[in-house]
Amino acid sequence: MSTHAATGAIDHHHDHTTRTGIPNKKLFMWAFLASDCMFFGALISSHLIYRLHETPNAPDVLGLFSLELTSFSTFILLMSSLLMALAVNSCQKGHVPATRKMLLGTIFFGLIFLACQVYEFNHFVHAGLTLSSNIFGSTFYTLTGTHGVHVAIGVLWLVLMYIRTFKPADGTPWILKSAIHLLVFAVFVVASMKAVLGCVHAVEEFGATGQMLSSFVSHELPAILVTVAGLVALVFLGRERKAVEFGEANAVDVESMGLYWHFVDIVWIIIFTAVYLLEYL
Q: What pLDDT score was predicted for residue 1?
């Protein structure tokens, strides 16, 4: 293990560095996040301004919102930031297996957040709150939906980075295997999200009871089986023992991805406060 790996220092000599001393990839990410700050700032400001001018058909948001569900998804997203930070730290030290585990954990938590948001949107639509029903619905779905898209992009980026960690160092073909890996991931994601949505629905309907468990298993058995099969396949595909090209040199890539993910989490904290908690004051 190199001196950089032993000390935990970041090795930037594999990446072009600007005169500021910041690698180009990180500088680009900071520039992108600065522009995204202004974008989300405009969306959040619009929502806060329009919520002060109630329309005749304004919804009873206190009756619609489930603070427990949203608080749970917020906690999950915050914990994903911890795993992302651990992934960055592991990559900086050259610990590829630990990096993979932390990336998988971040992906899993990101999917739980997205599943909760999909369930919430579905509930709101059935309750009559749509994008075109009133001003609140327009600003709410635009703001939270845009954030959800950012999370989905982040999850896709994490999946691709995870698969990238298996690229062999000896140059053997890996495109076909990576395509299969990605396909298994896609099936696993769809099945797991359906299972999570079914679980949330069962908890909302029956509470944490035996009837909830029975209803969940009976309605979501195919999704549960596909999720388990996908997880087993991912474990099998992840048992690669060959030397890989991924290592300390890719620390700046994982760090740039971490900057994006932490930004998405911070934005959600602001949205959670401005959109949800503010309605209870």
A: 39
pLDDT along the chain (281 residues), means of 10: 41 55 81 93 90 71 82 93 93 88 92 89 85 84 94 93 84 80 87 83 77 82 89 80 76 91 95 87 69
Using CA atoms, how far residue 37 sits from 30, 144, 268, in Å, is: 10, 15, 12
The neighbour count for residue 119, using CB atoms within 10 Å, is 21
Tokens of 204: 């909302």
Q: What is the DSSP track for 87-124?
A: HHHHHHTT-HHHHHHHHHHHHHHHHHHHHHHHHHHHHH
**Residue 3: Cβ-neighbour burial (10 angstroms; 0-12, 13-18, 19+):** exposed
What is the number of other CB atoms lying within 10 angstroms of the CB of residue 257?
23
Torsion angle in degrees (nearest 10) through CA of 168, 173, 177, 183 = 110
Report the sign of the C-alpha dihedral through residues 140, 141, 143, 144, in that order: positive
3-state SS, residue 78: helix
pTM: 0.83
The position carrying tokens 């900086």 is 92
Using alpha carbons, select from 147, 165, 133 the residue that is nearest to residue 254. 165
Nearest residue to 268 via CA among 74, 99, 109: 74
- In terms of Cβ atoms closer than 10 Å to its own Cβ (0-12, 13-18, 19+), residue 46 is middle
